[in-house]
Amino acid sequence: MAAERDITGSQSVDRALQVLSLVGRGPEQGLSLLEIVERSGFNKATTRRLLLALMRARMVSQDEVERRYFLGEEAYVLGVFAAPRFGLLEMAMESLTRLARQTSDACFLSIRRDTFSICLHREEGNYPIRSHALQKGFEHPLGVGAGSLAMLSTLPDGEVEDVLARNADYLAATFPMVTAADIRAAVQVTRRRGYALNPGVPFPNSWGLGVALRYPDGRLAGALSVAAIDSRMQEPRQSELSRLLREEAACVEAKLERAFDRDPPKGRAGHRANGHPTPRLNQPRRISL
Questions:
Q1: 268 in helix, strand or coil?
Q2: Predicted model pTM
Q3: pLDDT top residue among 90 and 5
């Protein structure tokens, strides 16, 4: 009986966290109960019960007029506490704003989450015709999309194959037009070019360019990308966009570099057990995604 209670309790926690994640990644106007039911796959009664529990914990709030759900006060507080550790977005915002202004197109910051890419931020340009294939909070399998492909291309071949194998069923069900062979070929081209080009896959009119971001020790940090309609992504503009992306990637990586303290020798208190430096207290903390 105790084991059954443990399983039930763990399942409730998992479901509540799933609902919290859905609300957090919802649109700026919030989500209705019906939308959460549809996206979570839970029945209405279960969804309402989970939302009430999250509201009691102040992780979720509900608008009194529209009855739509948003992240709550406590979620904001925890986010503030987490920001120094997950501060890549803060470091990249200046570059994203500058890219959007220079290109007039939508620009993105994405990070890797296991075998997927997740968009952390979309910065709008002022060009009137826009691509809407990627929005904040969207997840794509690594290799699908420009920023996602740029990140996958930084990984060793063995890890690329592991990602493709683990994503095989999802790709087949969700992106049947994208094969593992296509992604392997795109990875090789991306490595040669130094940037990723997505020529409208899987959305024909939405093209993208992306470059990877790295920590000072060479680890993958994320990716910057720009998306536009196909007519705005042809040469010679591809070369110009890739240049701008690489310049801004260098700016972000310089900020990451300054977040690392490389001065103390190994073995002193300023170093971790693996030899990587810990951050200075008077500088931004080391990023760890």
A1: coil
A2: 0.68
A3: 90
